[in-house]
Design brief:
- The chain has 353 residues and is an alpha/beta fold.
- 24% of the residues lie in helices and 26% in strands.
- A hairpin with an 8-residue loop joins strand 1 and strand 2.
- The longest helix is centred in the last third of the chain and has 14 residues.
- The mean pLDDT is 96.
Length: 353
């Protein structure tokens, strides 16, 4: 029988999220049923709830940074058992046979990954609903293990903010001797600092806001550069191997490109809009520099990231909220008033029942 689930949903782009009851599918033989404990709040949740990317369907239950305990498994599941602490990120399925999926890069599935919410199940075509809810049913191939060395509350944002920062650093082989800069000190940026430092890189934070040096150094930065200061920018010209750009709004890339070495890489992980102002081709050509992008990570890479976090004691800096505070949290996110990720205590859903 289908499962009746309590969650919080947006009913339209202009309405606040509120309590909502919906159905999840009857578990399949390869499914894991997870009682959700915590769910991180990603800026993309706000974009989707308010239809800012013009692809939203309603009712929508957001949430793709999910930590919970397994309550049941299907007959074909051997990797997980009841009581295990597990996570679910941005994807819950993919075609699993294209070149990308075969390489463990399900996020780049040629047929398109199935997203945790605001999507349709590949098999029954029913809508997917996310982690602002009491329970989720997911194929075992898209469930990851959470070490008991990790605090589950602050591990939740690793399922999106963490892996989005981790994947490009790993792909471009950041390690000892690398000189890395991170643009932006938010949910993604603060994880970028932590990861790059733990990987052995020399790490710089670019920020437009004075007064962030102490905080940046606490998070792993060796240096802080005020990007609005031409003298500070000139002083780091041609220094960096890799720039992790976490800014989600349009901004000028050209001053940052000048700080890259020959063959340096400027990687976008936050911006989905057109680059504006345009990139100056001469800056790219004369330094053989690259502007590129990266999206989350595959399931195996996500597990690798979680294991690295457990080994190195890395989690996200979070502020816990009750589900009833979600609309206020969205408004605070718009003002960058969070250090650095909200996480919902799903036990608070019982207050809405």
């Amino acid at each position: 029988m289908a499962l009746s689930i309590l969650g919080y949903a947006a009913q339209a782009a202009t309405t606040p999220l509120a309590a909502h009851t919906f159905e999840r599918r009857d578990p399949r033989p390869d499914d894991v049923v997870i009682d959700i404990l915590y769910c991180g709040v990603c800026h993309s949740d706000l974009h989707q709830a308010r239809n800012e990317w013009h692809n939203s369907t309603y009712p929508m239950v957001p949430g793709h940074e999910i930590i919970g305990k397994v309550s049941a498994v299907g007959a074909k599941v051997s990797k997980f058992k009841a009581g295990d602490m597990v996570g679910v990120g941005c994807m819950v399925d993919s075609c699993q046979h294209c070149a990308s999926c075969s390489a463990g890069l399900e996020q780049y599935c040629v047929e398109g990954a199935t997203w945790t919410y605001n999507d349709k199940d590949r098999h029954d075509k029913l809508p997917t609903f996310g982690g602002y809810s009491e329970r989720i049913v997911v194929s075992d191939k898209f469930v990851v293990s959470i070490s008991d060395k990790l605090d589950p509350k602050s591990a939740a944002p690793l399922l999106c903010a963490g892996i989005t920062s981790w994947s490009p650093l790993r792909h471009w082989k950041i390690g000892k001797g690398s000189k890395v800069a991170v643009i932006g000190l938010g949910g993604l940026g603060h994880m970028g600092l932590k990861f790059a430092k733990a990987m052995g890189a020399d790490v710089t934070l670019f920020t437009r806001s004075p007064g962030k040096e102490e905080e940046a150094r606490r998070l792993g930065a060796d240096h802080v550069v005020l990007s609005t200061d031409p003298k500070q920018m000139a002083a780091v010209a041609g220094q960096f191997d890799f720039i992790l750009d976490t800014v989600p709004s349009q901004h000028d890339l050209n001053p940052y490109l000048l700080t890259l070495k020959l063959d340096g890489v400027h990687c976008l992980v936050g911006l989905l809009e057109p680059i504006d102002p345009p990139v100056q081709a001469g800056v790219v050509i004369l330094g053989r520099r690259s502007v590129t992008g990266s999206a989350i990570g595959g399931i195996a890479e996500t597990q690798e990231m979680l294991d690295f976090c457990a080994e190195h004691g890395i989690t996200c800096d979070v502020e816990m909220i009750d589900i009833q505070q979600i609309n206020e949290a969205y408004e605070r996110m718009l003002k960058s008033d969070v250090r650095y990720r909200f996480v919902i205590d799903i036990a608070s859903l019982k207050k809405a029942a």
